[in-house]
Every structure is written in C-alpha cells, then in structure tokens.
Design goal:
This protein is α+β, with helices and mostly antiparallel strands and 755 residues long. It folds into four domains: 1-33 and 204-357, Multidrug efflux transporter AcrB transmembrane fold, CATH 1.20.1640; 67-172, Alpha-Beta Plaits (2-Layer Sandwich), CATH 3.30.70; 358-393 and 587-755, Multidrug efflux transporter AcrB transmembrane fold (Up-down Bundle); 428-556, Alpha-Beta Plaits. It has helices spanning 2-12, 14-32, 35-38, 50-61, 83-97, 142-155, 169-203, 206-230, 239-268, 273-300, 308-339, 347-352, 360-371, 373-388, 409-420, 444-458, 477-483, 487-493, 495-501, 521-537, 552-586, 590-615, 635-666, 669-698, 704-736; strands spanning 69-75, 102-106, 123-130, 163-168, 429-434, 463-467, 508-515, 546-550. The strands form two sheets. Strands 2-3-1-4 form a four-stranded antiparallel sheet, with helices on both faces. Strands 6-7-5-8 form a four-stranded antiparallel sheet, sandwiched between helices. The radius of gyration is 30 Å and the shape is elongated.
C-alpha cells in the first residue's frame, strides 16, 4: 500500500523530508512575492461570444478605437471657465497626449458636450485613450500616469488645490487587483491570531497549536509560487488570490489539526513517536488524502467552465489543496517524529484547558441521537428549509451596488463622474454595425435604418444618449449622406471622431450607448438584452447588415449565459465523481449517496442566506455595503458550489472514517456511530471554527466578489459542521443500520438492518 510506504520513509528519514521542503521554500518564497503581477482583472468567456466578436472587429477595423481609456476627474473651488482651471486642463491634456501610450485626449475644450462639466461647473473630466498597439497593458502605465499628472498639477500655480483622480477600466482593474492583494494579506493577519486561539484551545499546547499555522501559511506560499509560474502560460484571475489564501489556510490547518490530534492519541495509547507518526499517516493521513481528493474534485469541475475567472480558480484550488495534502502527510509527520512528546509543551496549559476536550458533552449528545434519530432529522431538515427558502428568489447578474472598489483613487474618480451625472460614459454599451459586402454603411441605402436603430435605442429609458456617426446637429438623410460622402476628407478635418467611430473603408461603424446615471449594472444588462432583442426582431432597412453588441455589460451578459448553461454540468460532475470517490474509499453505496445529498443541502442553505443578506440587503451594512446588491454575480454560485462541496466533504470524511474504523472493530453500527461522533466532534468543531474565521474575514473584503464568496463559504461550513455533521448524518447512520456498509462490510454473510 503506497500510503504505508510513504509512512515508513517519512518516519525513517525526517531530516531528509525537512531538507526537501526547505529547498522548495527557497524557490517558492521569492516567487510568491510577485503574485499581484501575475493576476488579471479582465473577465470573460474563453469561447468566442458576441461581445468578444464585437471587440475583435473594433480592434481590427478602427485605426484609433476608443477602447481601453483612462478617465481623469478634476474638482476645484473655481469654475472651469476661469483661466487657471482651463489652463490646468489644457496642460494636463497636452502632457498626456505626449505620452507614447496615449493616442488622444478629449475634454470639454475639444467638444461642446455638456456631459463633461457638472451643473455647478466646478467638476469636469477628460478621457485619455490608450494605444491599442502598445505591447503593455494600459494598467501597466497607471502608476507612471498618476505620478505624471500629480507632478504636473503641483508645478502649476494653484494646481495643488484641485482633487484629481484617475479612473476608467484599466485603473479600476489595477486598483481592484491591488486591494485584492492587500485584503488577502490583511485577511491572513486578522485570521491567524483568532485561529491560533482556537488551536490552543483544541490542543492545550503552544507547540501543537503552532504546527498547523506553519503548514497553512507554507501551503499558501508554495501554491502562490506555482500559480505565478502557471500565469506565464495561462490566464489567472484576481479571484485566484482570495480563493487560494482562504482555502490554503483553511485546509492546511484542518488537515494538520486532524494529523496532530491523531498523533497525540497514538502517543497516549503507549506508542513511541516513530510508530505513532507511522500509524497517524496510515489512518489520519489516509483520511486527509481522501478528503483532499474530494476537495480537488470540486475545483477540477471548474475546468470545464468557459470563463477565465472560474477555470483559473479551479487550477489554483487544485494546486493549493494538493500542496496542503502533501505537507500534511510528509512534512508535518516528520516534524512530529522529531518532536514526540515535545508537542505537548507547556503541559501546564493542557491542564487548564482540559474542559474543552471533555468528551462527556459529546457522548451525551451522541446517545440522544441514537435514541431519537427521527426527531433529529425533523429538527435538522426544518432548520435547513427555513434557511434555504430565500434561494427561490435568487437573481443572477451584475450587482447594483458595491462593484467598484471603495477607498481607491479609481473609486473616487467614479464618484466624481456620478456627481457630474456622467458615470454612464465610463463603460458604454458598444454597437458595432458592419456591412459584410464591404458597402459603405453611411451611404443613403442604410441611413434610414440606422436612424431607426439609433432612435429605438435612444427611446429606452435606461439610455442617456447614443454617440456615434449619427450624433450630428442635423437629422436630414440628404445632409448626413452628403456629410459622409467623402470619408477621407472628413477624416482629415476631424480625425479623432472619424477614427473612433468610422472604419477607413466605411464598411463598419460604431455607436456608443451611454447609460443614464440612475441605471445600475443590473439595468445595463437588461439594456443589452433589449438592444439584442430589437436587432433579432429585425430593423427595417438593415436586413443585410451585421449588428453586434459589445462592451462591459454585454460581456457580462455573455459570461453569465455561458456560465449558467455550464452550471448543471458542473453540478453533475461534482456529484457523480465525488460519489464514486467515496464509494471507493468506504466500499459503500449508501454513504456516498447520503454524503452528496447532505452536501447539497448545506450549499443550498448557504445560497439562501447569501440571497437574504446581500441580494435582499438584510444586515448587509455589517459587510460595508449601503444596500442590497439586487443580484448575485454569475461566477459566485458556481465557485461557491464547487469549493464548498469539496470542503464540506472534509468533515464527512473525518466523521465516517472514524465511524468505519470503530465499526470494523466492534461490528455494532450504533456503537460505532456514537463512538465516531464523540471522537471527532471536538476536532470537527475546532476545524469548522477555523474555516469560518478564515472565510468570514474575506466577507469584509473591499472586493464585492470576495465578500460574496467568503460569506457563502463561511455559512456553508457553519451549516455543514452543525446541522449536517452533528445532527443529520449521525441520525441517518443510526436509522440505516448496517446498510451503511453494504456491500463492503458484511455481517453473517449479508447486511442486517438494526432496529
């Protein structure tokens, strides 16, 4: 048996094990420090969607498309008409326009559009379009750009008195990635002291409590180093950092908790430190491997999803779980072999904390469950039904509030735009109109159809304006046709406008749909669906024209659609593969079926409370939001399901492995169930508390997606470790009797149902 061979090698050569992992640490620690540079904020489906097609056409057909751009918000005490204010805007515009990564700058000085100036005329903004041919991502220039703007403003007379913020897509992405890194580090700092307290209570010894913390942090470090390496060949979402940090710390400590607890038990049974470590690897180590496999299955299911966010999280999760398992069955037992009874130091502390490990309370609870299993099932299922009920009202989409990162310069810039009433300019819906035959779209043949399309979009109450080739002071088809009769001449006169909205051949044009400032992201998705419905129903005069809808909101709609179509496949994969893995591990039909059903119940309960708190806004102020999100981001349900389903299987495996071990020894199902519950209840409670702390800290992150995921994971673990593992699972084990172990373990030749 492979695990037995590993056990013998680890206890025989513990110093060699330390040396090997020491070499890993030397390589991993400096590599992991570059994790923030390896992550990407951009989202989207891996397959070609309508929004992605629109983006590709814009990049290919337009010589100077307004794609990625920075928005610089400026607020002063004076009005923009005063000479000093105007001079500031002109100087900043000229300075940015001279940078190689900026193609054009548009401000109120270049256009009469009133949307650039607030009603009190004290706040304005200008747009700096990035060069699409630049080999670097626009966000790579952000720090340099912010410093340049700040330095230029300070050099002007009175320039230091203006509030200047750089926002826009690249800036929002950069700041989100930055605060995700900061929050992950801060989360560790907050979680570790609380986790240490739980571990000291669980072990009653400082040395024993320190080991799981070391394993958890080391697992995260090694996993992040591997992810940095993988980022060179694949996309890695910013979500990976939060998931790896949370899961790595949680499973690393949980697995270590199980290993150290079993090692101490074996020492108390009179075994020497080497034999105790060997037996710990064979028993608890085997449970850790089985548990790690079930968690990895959940993450592996994300690889089939057609989105960079979810698939990269799947890779990151598999990496950190694998590292945590390897550390728990090699490095940790090697340390235990060397320490022996030294893990109990100081012994005086253990005496003071003996009450925490008193088995009497759990034994009483186990006996009550054995006498009243049906009553326990009714109680547990009733509580889960109440908690899960809000799930029927779940709405999938972009959240209405809290999406932009709070407490950042990019977020402050968004607030400036909101004050002006121009937030809709930040992420417009982009309508690409192309003639497949190469005809000029702005010729008289299509102009009436284009006007119908523009007017229909403009009539939508969610729309502020439609900018593009038809956004002219005159409406006459004759005059518009004449205006665009000579595109080359028009491009010479107004290159910025023509290059942004009309391709050189004239066969492709672009319309930017600016949303009303009162419209949330959820409303922007509805607008995209409305525009697409209008196009699908046919626009008279544009029958032979291809029309695609792109932009941030359209990409989000496409991502949501492909994720929701793939969600059932993920669920089926996780359920089936997990059931098969548990069947192989426990040689039972009923155990895996019960396990997947119970896990599904805990996930449903977690979703229900997520809808109640975040979507509906009950008590959401606790997590730093002013109101309900109105919708749950599409990636959250699929991520929470895959992660929670695997993690909650930890406690199932811990409990069932101990019950099975007792049953093989006693051949008495009721006695084995009570013994297994009593023996693991303290460990499961401590492990669950640690997971809740780790995940719960993320619920207070400044990144909304991290809040949702952290909250969902914490609640799922809470439900799983209490209602599921402490009530429903043992109650069902009592009712099923010896059928729990069919067909792997038989008594008198056939299973027997206990009364």
């Amino acid at each position: 048996m492979l695990i037995a061979q590993v056990a013998r090698l680890v206890v025989r050569f513990p110093l060699l094990v330390f040396l090997c992992w020491g070499l890993v640490a030397v390589v991993a620690i400096p590599k992991a420090a570059h994790i923030s540079d390896a992550l990407e904020i951009e989202s989207g489906a891996k397959r070609i969607t309508e929004a992605k097609q629109a983006e590709q056409i814009i990049e290919e057909e337009f010589p100077n498309p307004v794609g990625d751009f920075f928005v610089v918000g400026v607020t002063g005490q004076a009005v923009v008409d005063e000479a000093g204010y105007t001079s500031l805007i002109q100087t900043l515009s000229d300075t940015l326009e001279n940078q190689y990564y900026i193609t054009q700058v548009i401000s109120f000085l270049d256009t009469p559009d009133s949307a650039f100036i607030s009603t009190d005329r004290k706040t304005t903004f200008f747009i700096a379009a990035s060069d699409p041919t630049d080999s670097l991502h626009p966000s790579d220039h952000l720090l340099e750009m912010r410093e340049l703007i700040s330095r230029t403003a300070r050099q002007l007379r009175g320039g230091a008195g203006y509030e200047i913020n750089v926002t826009g897509g690249p800036a929002l992405g950069f700041d989100t990635r930055t605060i995700a890194t900061e929050d992950a580090k801060l989360g560790e700092e907050r979680a570790l002291p609380l986790t240490a307290i739980v571990l000291i209570l669980a072990f009653g010894a400082l040395v024993a409590a320190t080991l799981p913390l070391i394993i958890g942090v080391f697992a995260i470090t090694v996993a992040l180093a591997i992810i940095v390496a993988l980022s060179e060949v694949m996309h890695m979402s910013v979500f990976v950092l939060n998931i790896v940090t949370m899961v790595g710390l949680a499973v690393g400590i949980d697995y270590s908790l199980l290993i150290v607890t079993r090692f101490r038990e074996e020492l108390n049974h009179g075994l020497g430190r080497r034999e105790a470590a060997r037996k710990t690897i064979v028993t608890a180590g085997n449970a850790v491997i089985t548990s790690g496999l079930t968690v990895a299955i959940g993450f592996a299911s994300l690889l089939v999803t057609p989105a960079f966010e979810t698939s990269s999280v799947g890779v990151g999760g598999m990496v950190v779980v694998t590292v945590a398992v390897l550390l728990s069955v090699t490095l940790l037992p090697a340390a235990l072999t060397l320490l022996g009874r030294g893990i109990d130091a100081p012994k005086a502390l253990a005496k003071r904390l003996a009450w925490y490990h008193a088995p009497s309370r759990w034994e009483r609870w186990a006996r009550w469950l054995a006498r009243h299993p049906w009553r326990a099932i009714v109680l547990g299922m009733g509580m889960l039904a109440v908690i899960t009920w809000p799930l029927v009202g779940i709405k999938i989409g972009l959240p209405a509030t809290g999406w932009f990162p709070a407490g950042t310069e990019a977020g402050a810039g968004v607030e400036q735009l909101e004050a002006i009433g121009s937030r809709g300019s930040l992420l417009p819906v982009r309508v690409v109109i192309q003639s497949p035959t190469g005809d000029k779209v702005l010729g008289s043949r299509y102009l009436r159809g284009l006007q119908r399309l523009s007017d229909t979009i403009q009539a939508n109450p969610r729309v502020e304006s439609v900018r593009g080739p038809l956004d002219l002071p005159f409406r006459s088809v004759f005059r518009i046709s004449g205006f665009y009769s000579d595109l080359d001449r028009g491009r010479e006169r107004n290159p910025e406008f023509f290059n942004a909205y009309i391709s050189p051949t004239g066969s492709t044009i672009l319309m930017d749909v600016i949303l009303a400032d009162t419209i949330s992201f959820t409303g922007s998705q509805a607008l995209v669906r409305d525009i697409r419905a209008t196009i699908d129903s046919g626009v008279r005069g544009l029958d032979s024209i291809d029309i695609l809808v792109g932009g941030f909101a359209a990409s989000s709609v496409d991502l949501q659609d492909v994720l929701m179509r793939q969600f059932p496949l993920v669920v089926v994969l996780v359920l089936v593969v997990t059931a098969v893995a548990l069947f192989v591990a426990f040689r039972s039909v009923l155990v895996p079926l019960k396990a997947v059903i119970m896990n599904a119940l805990s996930v449903g309960g977690a979703f229900g409370l997520t809808v109640l708190v975040f979507q509906n806004g009950h008590f959401v102020q606790i997590f730093g939001l002013e109101g309900g999100t109105e919708a749950v981001y599409a990636a959250v349900p699929i991520l929470v399901f895959a992660v929670v389903f695997g993690l909650s299987m930890d406690y199932e495996v811990f409990l069932l492995a101990r019950i099975k071990e007792a049953y093989e020894r006693t051949r008495d199902n009721d006695k084995a169930t009570m013994e297994g519950l009593s023996a693991t209840a303290s460990v499961i409670t401590s492990a669950a508390t640690i997971m809740i702390i780790v995940f719960g800290v993320s619920a207070f992150s400044r990144v909304l997606a991290a809040k949702l995921i952290g909250f969902g994971l914490a609640i799922a673990v809470l439900l799983d470790a209490t209602i599921i593992r402490m009530i429903l699972v043992p109650a069902i084990m009592h009712i099923a009797g010896e059928w729990n172990w069919w067909p792997g373990i038989k008594r008198n030749g056939r299973p027997k149902i206990s009364s």
